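Exercise 7b. Backbone tokens:
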């Protein structure tokens, strides 16, 4: 395996030495571009008490190209589809090489705190969210309990 760029080494060291509250990101031993990530559901959100597993992969062109991130834990969220793909501007059109892994993870955590049904990836969930927000939030809480190793 080719050696890692200094930037990835630095970012990885910082994630370990100065972790983001509620987020862990650890590189795999056999592929240091591939991270196992956990994000705690933000307080006051339907995802509170949940621990969500994600995978994050740094493509060869990183940081010119955004990291690839996806939820492995099932989640009921208008901006995250059944395959765990995430609709988030910093992963797509607003990616900039100035951003870092931790910025992306913080943005995902913020997305959990404030779902945006007006820019959906999961159209059925977004529709539900718009028509019956209370019901959608209840479903999100239920899925969090069921799938996100929720701890009370």
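Sequence design result:
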């Amino acid at each position: 395996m080719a050696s890692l760029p200094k930037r990835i080494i630095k970012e990885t060291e910082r994630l370990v030495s100065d972790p983001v509250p509620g987020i862990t990101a650890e590189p795999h031993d056999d592929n240091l571009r591939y991270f196992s990530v956990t994000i705690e559901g933000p307080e006051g959100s339907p995802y509170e008490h949940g621990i969500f597993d994600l995978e994050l992969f740094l493509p060869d062109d990183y940081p010119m190209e955004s990291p690839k991130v996806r939820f492995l834990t099932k989640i009921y969220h208008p901006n995250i589809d059944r395959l765990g793909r995430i609709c988030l501007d910093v992963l797509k059109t607003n990616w900039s090489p100035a951003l870092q892994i931790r910025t992306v993870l913080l943005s995902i955590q913020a997305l959990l705190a404030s779902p945006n049904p007006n820019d959906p990836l999961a159209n059925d969930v977004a529709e539900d969210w718009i028509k019956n927000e209370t019901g959608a939030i209840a479903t999100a809480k239920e899925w969090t309990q069921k799938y996100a190793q929720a701890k009370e």
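Instructor comment: The chain has one domain: 6-148. DSSP finds four helices and four strands in the chain.
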